[in-house]
Design goal:
Blueprint lengths: L1 E2 L4 E3 L3 E4 L2 E9 L4 E4 L6 E10 L1 E4 L5 E4 L4 E5 L5 E5 L4 E10 H6 L13 H8 L5 E3 L3 H7 L9 H17 L13 H16 L7 H7 L4 H12 L3 H19 L4 H7 L5 H12 L3 H6 L7
Antiparallel strand pairs: 1-2, 2-4, 3-4, 4-11, 5-10, 6-9, 6-11, 7-8, 7-10, 9-12
Length: 295
Amino acid sequence: MKTDENNTSVSKRLLLFPGVSLSYLELSCQDKICYSHPEDKKTLVLQYCAAGHMDWQMTDGTHLYLGAKDYAVYTMGDCAHSQVRLPNGFFRGFLLFFQEEILAKNPLPVLSESGVDTQQLFRKFSRSDLPVSFTGSEDSEAIFRYFYSESAPSAYQRLKALETILYLQSLPLKEKNRMSEYQTRQVEIVRAVHARLLEDLSKRYTIEELAKEYLMNPTTLKSVFKKVYGLSLAAHMKEHRMEQAAKLLCETDYSISEIAHAVGYDSQSKFASAFEKEFHCLPTVYRKNGGVWKE
């Protein structure tokens, strides 16, 4: 694996067949990551998210939102000049590369013998509006999860790559099969809402209050927030509240009551109950032990 200053780890491309290769990708960053490389419309990419969440603004301004088990299809031209944000700070997944010109000269074994023309894959997606992302399903997960099997030999990965091609060729490109894409303005509003919520964790806001202040429909606000951050607004903020509470328990002498108020709980008992559900111990025990890891 190769790591850069953005805590980006990319494995070397594993050649599965001439024209088909595999790389694993791990990202860890609180800021945006910028990419710039030569445009290559002849290389089709399938990107799979195994864990984490990604907001990728592609060259044409389109946003791809990937959560666990979701996947996207695009060309190396679509991401030639792009920016990645990680709402939850990390992403782990893999990339499958299909090079059209090499595959045209090197028919894939088994598929070509069965009369499958891999060029259909490029013709199909050249007619679609790339880039495009899809919500993971039982069918897709039955294929993609095995790329991460520690015991899987390279021969098994090669078989899964062939299965991926067959799956993509049969995949309907109807709008209902795609993940919803949100306009840049809506994403910007949700990010502003998120920043506002983190300014002071002692304050709580209702969806209706935020929607009114930021001039967005409440249902749309909830939907876009979950797509961008991977969790509902309430669940996402609870994670932040608990993380801050754990930090205050270890790094300050504040009373439990003061910490409860600092992270938005008027009741010390409700705070203690929420903390115990998250860390599997009471705040007093957590502080006494100098911090314990969540199970």
